[in-house]
């Protein structure tokens, strides 16, 4: 049964067809005259092999009939993908070996034709911009909202999606990110209903939500909400090797073969089989034990949250708080706001790494973000809480309080991003001289992690003034391609 009470696993989910095949083959000590060049790990230098051993490498093979092909699966990979699809209750699941990044590109390319338009929240992951460029679609942006008490950004709401669809009824699809990096989920059920009532597709970047399905105290998943395509970075939240991800197909409106072809087109022909096997295993583990694992983890996290919220200078928002704002929260992402400490999140993250041997997933000016997962233990959470308790008592900075803002910059897309990328030459012009030109690049300051410009947008004086202020405050701008942001790449029309 899934958490909505639906029976989904009529087949035996204890099986791990791909992992079993690889293990059996490794135990037979097959003589390798195939790639990879390490030949079952025999060629790995002892500097590494003395730490990892060689067994791991004997699971890293290449395409041959026994182990199947990711691009045209008929054996264990096909069986593993079918088990995955049944576990999640979808029609088809595709294993990905280049993360949700390739999933996002695939979702856009397999649903939108050049010249069509796609509604998408502006705080989207950079891989969707790659999808926009590859597909030739016109993006229609939804501006996310910011919460200046919590110092986080919220993704699109149902009301925003409905309003944008009314304004742009020609849009082919809507792409939403849920959960966000901070674990905030939007009301996907409502968004799916709004989209489907108008015959529009709902694509969900659920990179952070592969685990949602496995415990009822987690927000509901995009699949249960009725999304047409959902991408999950299985490696982010479940015990899977990096890059291992899944694209789920569950749609009456999209051509399955087109999705299959695009996924195949964008992926390597030499997938890492060890990564694929860990996806297979994680699915089995989650179906068998996910509920128990998350039951324990959620209790530990609740305790840690309450402890952090007793500190003078640190706080972490709760699920109830986020629900009060019309969203929901996956509590496994612990966003700790540090602004009262007088330090930036970056600084607290450095102290944690240097003095406590603790590495958080990310930090910004306001927060550190500690991501918990299937492997997180009570000891780990206790170590984090103890470290924060000590820092809370000892350290005090004098950083003035920053305010998280999204500039209300109006942007005008005058050329298709794909045309800019493929058809035109570009040149660099100094910031001040860029006004009136068309941007040939994306520029995204962190925070808030929302592009100020994307390829094809007209550069206004308002945008340049904003960028100059960022330069003054030494804010990092992704895409600047140099030590300091002094120039912008623009379309060379002549
Ligand atoms: C919201 C979101 N989508 C997609 C991605 C890309 O995922 P991956 O790293 O698995 O390619 C990320 C990466 O952090 C992300 O945060």
General description of the model:
By secondary structure, the chain is an alpha+beta fold. Among the domains are: 290-394, Alpha-Beta Complex (Aspartate Aminotransferase, domain 1), CATH 3.90.1150.10; 417-492, Orn/Lys/Arg decarboxylase, C-terminal domain (Ornithine Decarboxylase, Chain A, domain 4), CATH 3.90.100.10. The protein is 37% helix and 15% strand. The protein has 16 helices and 19 strands. It has helices spanning 17-27, 46-52, 76-88, 99-111, 126-135, 158-167, 188-197, 222-225, 234-237, 256-266, 273-308, 319-323, 345-356, 378-394, 417-423, 461-472; strands spanning 92-96, 117-121, 138-142, 145-147, 152-154, 173-177, 184-185, 201-205, 229-232, 245-249, 315-316, 328-329, 333-337, 362-363, 367-371, 425-430, 444-446, 476-478, 487-492. A seven-stranded mixed beta sheet has the order 1-10-9-8-6-2-3, sandwiched between helices. Strand 4 (145-147) and strand 5 (152-154) form a beta hairpin. Helix 6 runs parallel beside helix 7 (188-197). The radius of gyration is 24 Å and the shape is globular. The termini are far apart. The relative contact order is 0.11. The mean pLDDT is 94. Pyridoxal-5'-phosphate binds at residues 99-101, 104, 125, 127, 177, 181, 205, 207, 233, 245.
């Amino acid at each position: 049964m899934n958490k909505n009470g639906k029976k989904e696993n009529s087949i035996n989910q204890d099986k791990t067809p791909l992992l079993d095949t690889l293990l059996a083959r490794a135990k037979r000590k097959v003589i390798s005259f195939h790639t990879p060049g390490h030949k079952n790990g025999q060629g790995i230098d002892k500097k590494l092999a003395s730490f990892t051993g060689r067994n791991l490498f004997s699971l890293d093979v290449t395409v041959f009939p026994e182990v199947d092909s990711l691009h045209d699966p008929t054996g264990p990979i096909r069986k593993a993908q079918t088990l995955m699809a049944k576990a999640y209750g979808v029609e088809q699941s595709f294993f990905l070996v280049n993360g949700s990044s390739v999933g996002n590109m695939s979702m856009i390319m397999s649903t939108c034709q050049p010249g069509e338009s796609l509604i998408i929240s502006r705080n989207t992951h950079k891989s969707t911009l790659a999808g926009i460029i590859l597909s030739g679609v016109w993006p229609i942006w939804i501006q996310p909202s910011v919460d200046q008490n919590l110092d986080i950004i919220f993704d699109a709401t149902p009301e925003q999606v409905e309003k944008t669809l009314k304004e742009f009824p020609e849009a082919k699809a809507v792409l939403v990110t849920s959960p966000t990096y901070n674990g905030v989920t939007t009301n996907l059920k409502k968004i799916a209903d709004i989209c489907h009532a108008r015959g529009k597709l709902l694509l969900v970047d659920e990179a952070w939500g592969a685990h949602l399905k496995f415990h009822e105290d987690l927000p509901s998943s995009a699949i249960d909400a009725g999304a047409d395509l959902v991408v999950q970075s299985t490696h982010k939240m479940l015990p899977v090797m990096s890059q291992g991800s899944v694209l789920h197909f569950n749609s009456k409106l999209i051509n399955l073969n087109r999705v299959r072809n695009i996924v195949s087109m964008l992926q390597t022909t030499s997938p890492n089989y060890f990564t694929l096997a860990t996806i297979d295993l994680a699915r089995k583990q989650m179906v068998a034990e996910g509920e128990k694992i998350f039951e324990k983890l959620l209790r530990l996290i609740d305790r840690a949250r309450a402890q952090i919220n007793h500190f003078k200078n640190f706080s972490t928002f709760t699920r109830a708080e986020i629900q009060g704002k019309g969203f929901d929260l996956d509590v496994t992402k612990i966003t700790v706001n540090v602004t009262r400490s007088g330090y930036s999140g970056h600084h607290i993250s450095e102290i944690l790494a240097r003095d406590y041997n603790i590495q958080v997933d990310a930090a910004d000016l306001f927060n550190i973000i500690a991501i918990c997962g299937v492997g997180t233990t009570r000891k780990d959470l206790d170590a984090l809480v103890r470290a924060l308790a000590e820092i809370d008592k000892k350290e005090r900075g004098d950083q003035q309080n920053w305010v998280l803002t999204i500039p209300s910059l109006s942007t005008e897309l005058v050329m298709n991003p794909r045309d800019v990328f493929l058809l035109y030459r570009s040149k660099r012009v100094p910031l001040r001289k860029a006004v009136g030109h068309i941007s040939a690049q994306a520029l995204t300051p962190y925070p808030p992690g929302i592009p100020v410009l994307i390829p094809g947008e007209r550069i206004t004086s308002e945008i340049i003034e904003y960028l100059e202020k960022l330069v003054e405050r030494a804010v990092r701008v992704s895409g600047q391609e140099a030590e300091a942001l002094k120039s912008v790449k623009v379309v060379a029309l002549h």
